[in-house]
Amino acid sequence: MSVPDAYRTVVSKRDSREFTADPIPEEVVRRILQAGRMAGSSRNSQPCRFILIRDRAQKEALAACCNSAMWAIEAPLVVAIAVQDGASDYDEGRAAQNMMVAAWAHGVASCPFTMHNAECARRVLGLPEGWRPGHGIAFGYPKSEESRHRGQPRLPLEELVHHERW
Ligand SMILES: Cc1cc2nc3c(=O)[nH]c(=O)nc-3n(C[C@H](O)[C@H](O)[C@H](O)COP(=O)(O)O)c2cc1C
User: Fold this and answer.
1) Quick check: is 42 in a domain?
2) How far is the CA of 110 from the centre of ligand 1 (A)?
3) For residue 25, what is the DSSP state?
4) 116 with 136: CB under 8 angstroms?
5) What per-residue confidence (pLDDT) applies to 144?
6) Whose CA is closest to 150, among 142, 139, 161, 138?
7) Cβ–Cβ under 8 Å, residues 23 and 29
8) In a domain, 162, yes or no
9) What is the 113 CA–ligand 1 centroid distance (Å)?
10) Beta bridge partner(s), residue 51
11) Is residue 155 part of a domain?
12) Which parts of the chain sit beneath pLDDT 50?
């Protein structure tokens, strides 16, 4: 399996919300999950679990817990991240971005979404005590070239970067 270089993959990854119905091969799904698994976490606490959702009714139920994720129903794969109580959002973010970048290296587009109604998401996902809903990530092959190019511009480096002090 050949993949583009890491820098190109990282800087060309944009969030896509339109997917084809093509399923993601299991080998690629496994790589996505491995990338999430290998993310570092505070004191190696590994506070995330990944819930794979392919069933349409389950995607609909989860999207109903969100303010802005109806588009995710059409994605062939949704990964809902469960986070251990007390864990840092930073740890979840590292795992999430690892998965999205690894997916993109295999041509699989993605977009994260917020589970705004946490109680609703907790119920739909069947989370045990001590775990909370983090974010969902929709994965799939991009519907069109154009659907990949709706990204927002980024601040110029000159505005982002300071030297020695702010
Ligand atoms: C923490 C987080 C939560 C997000 N929640 C949502 C969401 O609920 N719905 C949605 O459509 N996009 C969501 N997004 C996607 C952002 O809108 C997207 O990352 C941003 O617009 C940049 O997109 P681009 O890379 O295509 O320019 C979320 C992104 C992050 C990082």
Assistant:
1) yes
2) 10
3) P
4) no
5) 81
6) 142
7) no
8) no
9) 6
10) 80
11) no
12) none
Say how many Å lie between the CA of residue 123 and the centre of ligand 1. Answer: 23
Residue ranges making up the domain that contains 85? 19-142
What was the pLDDT predicted at 2? 72
pLDDT in tens, 93-138: 999 999 999 999 999 999 999 999 999 999 999 999 999 999 999 9
Ligand 1 atom nearest to 69, measured from its CA: 9
Residue 152 forms part of a structural domain = no
Q: pTM of the full predicted structure?
A: 0.95
Taking the C-alpha atoms of residue 3 and residue 155, their distance in angstroms, rounded to an integer, is 28
Number of domains in the chain: 1
Residue 19 DSSP one-character state: B
Residues contacting residue 155 through CB under 8 Å, at least 6 positions apart: none
Q: Which of 139, 132, 138 is nearest to 49 (CA)?
A: 132
| Bridge partners (DSSP) listed for residue 140 | 109
Q: What CATH number does the domain containing 112 carry?
A: 3.40.109.10
Q: What is the pLDDT of residue 9?
A: 95
The pair of structure tokens assigned to 86 is 């007390």
State which ligand 1 atom lies nearest to the alpha carbon of 154: 27
114 Cβ closer than 6 Å to some ligand 1 atom:
yes
User: Can you give the pLDDT at residue 145?
Assistant: 76
